[in-house]
TrEMBL record:
Requisite cofactors: pyridoxal 5'-phosphate
Alphabetical keyword list: Pyridoxal phosphate
Gene3D superfamilies to which the protein is assigned, alphabetical: Aspartate Aminotransferase, domain 1, Type I PLP-dependent aspartate aminotransferase-like (Major domain)
Pfam families, per database record: Cys_Met_Meta_PP
Name of the protein in question: Putative transsulfuration enzyme family protein
Cited InterPro entries: Cys/Met-Metab_PyrdxlP-dep_enz, Cys_met_metab_PP, PyrdxlP-dep_Trfase, PyrdxlP-dep_Trfase_major, PyrdxlP-dep_Trfase_small
Molecular-function GO terms, alphabetical: carbon-sulfur lyase activity; pyridoxal phosphate binding
Domain of life of the organism encoding this protein: Eukaryota
Database matches in PANTHER family: CYSTATHIONINE GAMMA-SYNTHASE (AFU_ORTHOLOGUE AFUA_7G01590) (PTHR11808:SF35), TRANS-SULFURATION ENZYME FAMILY MEMBER (PTHR11808)
N6-(pyridoxal phosphate)lysine modifications at: 201
Keyword field contains Transcription regulation: no
Gene Ontology cellular component list: cytoplasm
Length: 406
């Protein structure tokens, strides 16, 4: 059995794992992994079917695996507490899960719209596949697919609850944990059978690579996934794998910092919203009204009503993730703010070191047109807070000028 993972780092801290979990695959004296781009390798003199992985790694053809891909998978496997297989994108990884499990009836909840499109493609290939909601009865369901935290609000689901329900029905639970990579969440601990990540987001973290990961609990499933990847050519390229390997080294520090800043920005925007509201014991100042009156609501796991027995602290020992949503009173307000935030790029995607703001309705018509999704980067809290304030004040100024014209 092929073993890529080095169990030596299983109990190390995430930041140590991120730096050293692929060291055993380093066969040259380079401290930084070399960039290798070859798609073909000379046959070993001993045997052309030699072990393709491990310290004596010998590769034949890139679709079967490459040194860089394997290193990225070693680091990913240790970090995710499973056996990781790397793909060309998050959606390719989702397709690979369907090819592996061959479900006949899928229960899927709030999920990335692209994943639902992949399931439609699968339904086109395999007639008779049914799709129901994740809250429906699981009779006949063989695959339950959930996402946590969910897009675009950053709110979390009780993974254990879905695992218990899925397993009681004889179904497998797949968790798309793109919004909460390790050490933010570890869905196997709550009973997930397979974990999926779009590595394009936090794992890559610099908005410069497209990749996806499927993490299996056992090597046998990982091997089966790897075989189908080889047959179907669903691989990530060598350069992307190298960028990912490099990015993973800072994943734990990036995501915990981004997550902590996000929680503070969420609290700030929620306080701006509250302070603009007249109550029996609070009369908003002129500035409080100007800053907060356009904010209709803020959504993030840190503000979510959590009902027992969901132990959210157990599911999220190091934070909730760095994506949240803000609802404005109108679509025009949302778009104005998106265009006037200076430290936030108005662009899609999430998980990069630069803060981003996206108008999800443009991508997914089921998202409210008044909603902005925010992905908090590594800028300081103070600078991001000032950026929000100037954008909200610019909106107030704009609205006053519009009103004066009427
Ligand atoms: C982006 C994303 C995907 C798709 O990943 P790609 O790398 O863009 O193919 C899947 N799930 C979630 C939650 C995502 O955010």
């Amino acid at each position: 059995m092929v073993e890529i993972k080095n169990p030596l780092y299983d109990t190390a801290a995430p930041s140590t794992q991120a730096l050293h979990a692929a060291d055993h695959l380093q066969v040259t004296p380079d401290v930084a992994a070399p960039i290798t781009v070859s798609t073909i390798y000379e046959y070993s003199s001993a045997s052309v079917t030699a072990n393709n992985y491990g310290p004596d790694q010998r590769y034949v053809y890139a679709r079967e695996g490459t040194a860089t891909t394997t290193k990225a998978e070693a680091a990913l496997s240790t970090l995710t507490e499973g056996h990781a297989v790397l793909y060309g994108s998050g959606l390719t990884a989702s397709l690979a899960v369907l090819v592996e499990l061959k479900p006949k009836k899928i229960a899927i909840g709030h999920a990335y719209f692209g994943v639902k499109k992949v399931i439609e493609q699968y339904q086109g290939l395999v007639p008779g596949v049914q799709v129901v909601g994740a809250e429906c009865d699981y009779a006949g369901v063989d695959l339950v697919w959930i996402e946590s935290p969910i897009n675009p609000t950053g709110e979390v689901l009780d993974i254990e609850k879905y695992a218990l329900r899925a397993h009681a029905a004889g179904a497998k639970l797949v968790v798309d944990a793109t919004f909460a990579p390790p050490p933010i969440s570890y869905p196997f601990r709550q009973g997930a059978d397979i974990v999926v990540h779009s590595a394009t987001k936090y794992m890559g973290g610099h908005s410069d690579l497209l990749a996806g990961v499927v993490v299996a609990k056992d090597t046998k499933t990982a091997e089966s996934l790897r075989y189908a990847r080889y047959i179907l050519g669903l691989n990530a390229g060598n350069l992307e794998a190298w960028l990912l390997l490099r990015s993973l080294k800072t994943l734990p520090v990036r995501i915990t910092q981004q997550s902590a800043t996000a929680k503070r920005i969420v609290a700030l925007l929620e306080s701006h919203r509250r302070l603009a509201v007249h109550t029996a014991c609070h009369t908003p100042s002129a500035e409080q009204t100007s800053v907060g009156k356009a904010i209709h609501g803020v959504q993030h796991a840190s503000l979510q009503q959590i009902c027992p027995p969901f132990d959210v602290a157990r599911q999220h020992p190091h934070g909730f993730g760095a994506v949240f949503a803000v609802n404005f009173r109108s679509k025009e307000q949302a778009l104005f703010v998106a265009r006037h935030l200076k430290l936030h790029a108005f662009a899609t995607s999430l998980g990069g070191v630069e803060s981003l703001v996206d108008w999800r309705h443009g991508w997914d018509v089921t998202a409210e047109p008044t909603l902005l999704r925010v992905s908090v980067g590594l800028e300081s809290y103070e600078d991001l807070a000032a950026d929000w304030k100037q954008a909200l004040l610019a909106l107030d100024d704009h609205e006053r000028k519009q009103a004066a014209k009427l």
